[in-house]
Design goal:
It is a single chain. By secondary structure, this protein is mainly alpha-helical. It has three domains: 1-31, no CATH class; 39-79, no CATH class; 81-135. Helix content is 57%, strand content 4%. The protein has helices spanning 15-25, 39-65, 82-105, 119-133, and strands spanning 4-6, 12-14. The chain has a two-stranded antiparallel ribbon with strand order 1-2. A hairpin with a 5-residue loop joins strand 1 (4-6) and strand 2. It is extended. The chain starts with a strand and ends with a helix.
Length: 135
Amino acid sequence: MGSTNIENNGSSKTSLDLERQTLITEGSTPTPEVQAPSVAKFLLCFVGLQCSYLTWGYMQELIMTTQFTPTTLSPSGLFPSATFCVFSNRFLAVALACALCKWKNGEVGVGVAGWLSFAPCSASNTISSWAQYGK
């Protein structure tokens, strides 16, 4: 968010609002930077996400409930480490995201927000996944 400036009438405006006001008073109008996505693109993304989540859930259930050959590390024959499942899932997600950012934008970075802005969401997602795999 931009910094706020208090006007004489007591209203609070961000620097973005003031920039737009300046553009309008100078005779030019601001243009939207992002066009609204089409319905077809939205539906494609929706279906893609649903298929991804269903595949992820099926594979997760398959890995954690399949009876493998018992070993000394896993006498029950079940997959022994929920932590490894979470780590490998997150590692592959980050690797794929970095590859897509590099392909689409030519660089890998978070932009204006910074890494710490994403930390609470990332931590809660990782902890909830770890708990979900646990017995």
